[in-house]
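To the structural biology subgroup,

Please find below the input and predicted structure for DUF4340 domain-containing protein, which we are adding to the shared reference set this quarter. The sequence is reproduced verbatim from the submission form. If anyone notices a discrepancy with their own records, reply to this email rather than editing the shared folder directly, so we keep one authoritative version.
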Amino acid sequence: MKKKTLTLIISLFFLVAFIAAYFAVSSYTKNKEEKETAKENENQVTLLTLESDDITEFSYPGSAGDLSFIKKDDNWTYEADSSIELSNDKVQDIADNFTSVIADRLVENDAKDLSTYGLESPSMTLTVSTSKGTTDKILIGDYNSTTGSYYAMINDKEDVYLLPSSFTSSFSSSVDDLKKEENSDKASSN
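Predicted structure (tokenized):
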């Protein structure tokens, strides 16, 4: 009986010690991750903040030239051919990328040699205009494979930033991708 009781007490001791160690390691890991996230966010720079409803026009490069979209009476139209019916939701989703443009970090203040970053002849120029009369231009340069980001400038200021590739990939839709989809009832009746 004493042997069973002693074995049970020792087992319970190890179980309690294991649970305490588990919670200590979990807490340490969580704190470490929070500190790393805070450090990453500490370097971020907000380049542009706009209200979604204020965006009235934007453009980005497509395979056959710039794609420009204009909002009139809460409806988006393709500037080059206003007869194309666009999905307002799809176009608005792209426009909403301009509401909060956050760079991972500042690379260089007042850069002297923009060719170093591919910004002397940018690979992409994004333009957005608002109902308040403002127009902002974001230039996208070379891809930095180490960080997975693109070099960028805003409004011709020569400060160079790193923008996440997720931001630039938002501007890859063609006009065909943005067309209003056929009504599923029409498609099923054929």
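Summary notes: Residues 1-42 form one domain. Strands lie at 45-49, 55-62, 65-72, 75-78, 100-103, 105-108, 124-130, 135-144, 149-154, 160-164.

Regards,
Lab coordination
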